[in-house]
Amino acid sequence: AQTVTQSQPEMSVQEAETVTLSCTYDTSENNYYLFWYKQPPSRQMILVIRQEAYKQQNATENRFSVNFQKAAKSFSLKISDSQLGDTAMYFCAFMNDNDMRFGAGTRLTVKP
Amino acid sequence: GAVVSQHPSRVICKSGTSVKIECRSLDFQATTMFWYRQFPKQSLMLMATSNEGSKATYEQGVEKDKFLINHASLTLSTLTVTSAHPEDSSFYICSARDRGGIYYEQYFGPGTRLTVT
Lengths: 112, 117
What we know:
The structure holds two protein chains of two kinds. Chain A is an all-beta fold.
């Protein structure tokens, strides 16, 4: 079974600075997708960014980018120019066919 | 964008009663829907996966007779918590995969907070 590990339960960053959230996973599969989801206090899950495992190029979405290291099974999220609205729980997720696994989450606080 | 709704958003029921939670994909057809449970300050735990017209696949440790899942159409899945007990109190989230989607992305509902008294 796939496992996803987020080793940083909590992190904080000053507004406008950059922060990186780490995620590692374990799988024997070759084809899969990785995601970062944001869960604000409303608890609505919001997709931040996705990465297809077969693509070597790291995904980027505006201020959000990933560092995908397939051999190392690492999938970190970098948030640039952090904003107060980025304060939330962030979950790393692995998906293959009908199996989806989430990491334990990292609580990010952006300080003014 | 793809929208998934859940109803009700909050429900309080007495111990021993059953409660049904609906999950609908509003602007797309969902071949697969997922049900998760989330305890406070914890991650999402996958309970079951349902495909339209077939029986749900439950994760190990999830009682299928207690958590009944029906995926009756491409836009509707329901989770019924039968004979609810206080330990079933939790936040339940559904998600749906777009039938026409090219990614494995799931679209999440806003969640249902269940309190069993």
